Amino acid sequence: MTGRARVVAFVAVVVVLVAAAGFYVLREGREVRAQRAAEPDTAQAPVDAVADGPRIVFRHTGIDAEYGHVAMVGLDDPSGPRAFTDVVCDRVAARASGASCLATERGVATAYTSQQLDADWQVVDDTDLPGIPSRTRLSPDGSLVATTVFVTGHSYMSTGFSTATEVHAFDGGERWGNLEEFQLVVAGEEVDPVDRNVWGVTFADDDRTFYATVATGGRTHLVEGDLQARTLTAVAEDAECPALSPDGSRVAFKVDVDPGRKVVWQIAVLDLATGDRAVLEDGPRGLDDQVEWLDDDTLLYGMPRRDEPGVTDVWSVDAAADATPELLIEQAWSPTVVP
Amino acid sequence: MYISVRDRPGADERAADGTRAARPPVGRAVVLLGIVSLLTDVSSESVSAILPLYLTMVVGLSPVAYGLIDGLYQGVSALVRLGGGWVSDATDRPKWVAFLGYGLSAVARVFLLFASGAAGIAAVVTADRIGKGIRTAPRDAMISTATPTEHLGRAFGVHRMLDTIGAALGPLIAFGLLWAIPDGYSVVLVVSLAFALAGVALLGLLGPDVRPRRDRGARAAGQTGPTPPPFRWRDLGDRRLRPLLVVAGVLGLLTVGDGFIYLALLDHGGVNVTWFPLFYVGTNVAYLFLAVPIGRLADRVGRSRTLVLGHLALVGAYLCSVLPTSTAAATVGTLALLGVFYAATDGVIAAIAGRLVPVQARTSGIAAAQTVVAVARMLASAGFGLLWFLLGPAAAMATVATLLTVAIAGAATRIGRLDRSEVTA
Questions:
Q1: Where does the chain cross the membrane (chain A) (predicted)?
Q2: How far is the alpha carbon of A323 from chain B, nearest alpha carbon, in Å?
Q3: Domain-embedded: residue A232
Q4: Does residue A9 belong to any structural domain of this protein?
């Protein structure tokens, strides 16, 4: 090829690329706008009709006008009509008294916030988060908030990840700060590892005790935390994102059943009194969520749809070794039960 | 003193070879390679800016799995870099080895569109990094070969400036698209792919087929001797290269990641965490404005001197990030000093390394220097994490600043010899 022919060929390539990318951007833009303008294909109810009774609050993930909005369904009719709020959250936790919402604010410098909302879904307090929202939980009476975010590297050469998990009072009063600064006790000894990460808090009902995951040295520990003593005490190994049952007797969490390079999480349930531990062998494989208790025997969790990016469903499974999952709420994520 | 001595080989060559004198300081090849890098950096940085969000929000993968992905390529990258250098030297075809590297990264972007699940995305990200590992040294060898020795610093400065413009534009384009099209991650991936393909096409169609060994032979024909012999591993053990590797390795061991410096700035208080990504942009802006002036300065006062003394800017950045001054002053000062540090080191070390080995080992020499720096900095960040935890930000920064100052003083004794080393045109 002569020099001139090469220049012509390059210009042709650029023209084709610009045309193809431009066509795709415009088509996607139009399609996304059309999808985002569409009404949800689920039956709808006014918020008042659902908000008075026992309910499941969640993030709606249908690709429609309500995408990302907090929605709720009646506890007795999870596949029935859903009520949509105006609040947009990546993760949500709710109680009768209010909710905790972790949200992304898009922009040239994307920011993340933690919001506390009252029973009418009005923001009463908000703080900046240092990373991508991952988990949030409220204590049973709604007085304590826990948030976990991922602080990821921001440069091309970055490696690894770290979490930032904080607990504070819902009313914005007391703040216990980053749980990494709590005293860690493993096998009865105080340890002070540099590489610790804490995530996935679940509260007991005494406004003091909680459970969480601590990772250090390539292992994960289930820890029992004490807000007053500022301690984290390891009670079991290989447990991530714990969830304490409403009666406080059992903890459900995810375990990596195939340790090694690939991570395959399954749900396991630990009886705190007896120490008996059961993996839900027929339960979900490859879930990546902090499970939620529907009642003392049933678990909820979100799973992404393989064929529809961005769309997730909430499934339920009995907290028993041989239980099989059932689809509970379509197009939903981050479920939280308000009894 | 050094200047005249160092310049002599270039001057001799000009006398011996009339065509070289006519070459402009920064040739078309350098600018073209710079634009290839610009396009590729727009592509890679637009994806890496949104990747954590994309993985968590769309793929439903938590960064725990993402951390594993990220860790995978670190070791691979160093090996691949050396391998790419060797193939480039053995075949005397740096353009096509670099093309392979750029091409691999572009192909990886196609698969990223369809990848789901941790394993798939890990494979794609790893392929992308392997591509980056393969292409860097051959591309720098092309810049090195296409530029007269006395203008190397400026040429690498021009290339790094264009490269950094791409790195600064990428995230802006990505977040701009996401702002226009909510959750339009696939749009960002497609646009990124288009930029990558444009870069590959530019290199493949218009990139000069630089042949360091053959060109040297052709120039030398009739004057001093035959085409240089093929590459041998022995060339890498060149007595002139070794001191550079030692100096770069020692200084690299005291170069902690930018992330820590930014964290120290955050620790200052009063800085909103949402500024974090902007620190990176600020450093890039300083770097892109300073790359050419400092490259030219390096050509005048000595490149090894610039490389070693450039680390003083890093000492300054360490101290500035923890000094109890106003937050605004600390931020601007730290980012500017980091920009000076990158401008004085990143391109400059490639400029030096390419001239300290025989021409048939040029790519391998550059790859060796870059690998030493990368591995040393990885170790530094790991070690510094410990220091940070034990001493706290201020004391840890002060400690590493002190150690680095001592290391610079030690390295300064080698500057003379390095800058005087006989260079390979």
A1: 6-26
A2: 24
A3: yes
A4: no
The answer to the question of residue A153 being in a domain is yes
Boundaries of domain holding A293: 88-338
B7-55: pLDDT as tens digits: 333 333 443 444 444 556 778 999 999 999 999 999 998 888 787 777 7
* Angle made by CA atoms B167, A112, A137, in degrees to the nearest 5: 140
Record: contact B53-A108, CB cut-off 8 A: no
What the block records as the tokens of A237 is: 């190994």
Structure letter (DSSP) for residue B237: G
- Of A76, A147, A85, A88, which Cα lies nearest the Cα of A119? A85
Contact between residue B253 and residue B382 where contact means Cβ atoms under 8 Å apart: no
The answer to whether the pTM exceeds 0.80 is: no
Helices (H), A38-140: 47-51
Instruction: Identify whether the C-beta of residue A103 lies closer than 8 Å to the C-beta of residue A110.
Output: no
CB spacing of A108 vs B58 below 8 angstroms: no
The residue type found at B73 is Y
Answer whether B76 touches A (CB < 8 Å): no
> Domains along chain B?
25-209 (1.20.1250.20), 233-420 (1.20.1250.20)
pLDDT band at B272 (very low <50, low <70, confident <90, very high): low
Tell me which chain B residues have a C-beta less than 8 angstroms from the C-beta of A7: 205-206
d(CA A241, CA A220): 10
State the smallest CA–CA distance between residue A68 and chain B in angstroms: 10
Separation CA B288–CA B169 (nearest Å): 12
Q: Cβ A17–B259 below 8 Å, yes or no?
A: no
Would you say residue A73 lies in a domain? no
ipTM for the complex shown: 0.80
Among B259, B238, B257, which Cα is nearest to B365's?
A: B238
Does the distance separating the beta carbons of B67 and A160 come in below 8 Å?
A: yes
